[in-house]
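User: Show me a protein chain along with its predicted structure.
Assistant: Here is one chain, sequence first, then structure tokens.
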Amino acid sequence: MSVMRKALLGAALAAVLVTGTGAGARAAAAPEADLAHHGHVSLWDGRLGVWLVSENHGPADVSQATVRLTFSQPLAAGQELPSACLWSSDRVISCRTGELRAAGAVGELALDLRTAGRPDELTVEIRTVWRDGVVDGNPRNDRHRVLVLATGDPYVF
């Protein structure tokens, strides 16, 4: 390969790396927000309480997001959930957060659930699974895994 062709190929590769192509370039152009979920989980006598606060540290608003709660133990059948939530399985609940304005209002969720049995402990995973096309450059604060012992104590995340 000639020196000229190598130089042109090198310049073309550098341009692709700098400007990006395909999905990566589209994702970089998407608005960015920083969703965060915090709260606590308690387990006692087959009861499970979850209190979750979702917030957006910005800079872009998020019109809607979905948070998924996955439990290591099955939950009792026939329980009603808040209107923003739905059952994905006997161990998974998905909930809409509502609009999360940048550095503005927060979305709150409270769940009072029953487990299928009376476990001594369980694990709950909290994670944003959809954010209406907004990129989150800091996903560490919207993903949690919490071990909850059946003591009735609030385990904070």
